[in-house]
């Protein structure tokens, strides 16, 4: 896929995630009851990044869980006959906690809906909040993030690519044309 523009470099991502970390602390009046859950795949390293930022500010370690929403997707039958399961790992109780779901990009809202279903199967949180690095619009469900790194208006013919060192060797956010992706 050919990138047509870089939206954020590593420094811009760091600033956005630092701001999100501060907003999470402020909105929750501290972090005593807060847990972060990254949505597989790129939401996980972003959740860990936010957790490190919160530790720098508050001096507290925030539990970070990993959530795989594959089997909760409403388009599972369209994805693949054999979907890839990356695994859920949440080593803490979520009942009564303020859960912050972390994802890279919010688009239609369907991934978040699936994540909420998955979380509710694991316990009954006090509340669920949503942190995303990029909000690209085009919602199909009435879902709005509580914390946004950057709003990026896009067309439906574009793809927002959040790249993280853990998977891509670089931290950056780019935009590509979907037609270019099909050609390559």
Description:
The chain is α/β, with parallel strands linked by helices. It has a single domain (10-73, 84-157), classed as Rossmann fold, CATH 3.40.50. Helix content is 33%, strand content 28%. The chain contains six helices and eight strands. The strands form two sheets. A five-stranded parallel β-sheet has the order 3-2-4-5-6, with helices on both faces. β2, α2 and β3 (64-67) form a beta-alpha-beta unit. The termini are close together.
CATH architecture: 3-Layer(aba) Sandwich
Question: Span from first to last CA?
Answer: 6 Å
Mean pLDDT: 91
Tell me the count of domains.
1
User: How are the strands ordered across the major sheet?
Assistant: 3-2-4-5-6
Silhouette: globular
Largest sheet: 5 strands, parallel
Which segments are poorly predicted (pLDDT under 50) over 5 or more consecutive residues?
Answer: none
């Amino acid at each position: 896929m050919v990138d047509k523009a870089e939206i954020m470099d590593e420094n811009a991502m760091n600033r956005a995630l630092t701001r999100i970390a501060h907003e999470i602390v402020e909105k929750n009046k501290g972090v005593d009851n807060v847990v972060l859950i990254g949505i597989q795949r790129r939401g996980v390293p972003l959740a860990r990044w936010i957790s490190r930022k919160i530790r720098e500010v508050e001096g507290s370690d925030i539990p970070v869980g990993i959530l795989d929403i594959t089997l909760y997707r409403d388009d599972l039958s369209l994805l693949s006959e054999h979907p890839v399961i990356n695994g859920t790992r949440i080593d803490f109780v979520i009942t009564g906690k303020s859960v912050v779901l972390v994802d890279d990009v919010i688009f239609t809202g369907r991934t978040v809906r699936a994540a909420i279903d998955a979380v509710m199967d694991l316990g009954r949180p006090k509340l669920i909040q949503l942190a995303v690095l990029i909000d690209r619009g085009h919602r199909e469900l009435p879902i709005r993030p509580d914390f946004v790194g950057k709003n990026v208006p896009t067309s439906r013919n574009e793809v927002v690519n959040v790249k993280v060192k853990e998977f891509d060797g670089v931290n950056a956010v780019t935009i590509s044309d979907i037609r270019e992706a099909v050609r390559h």
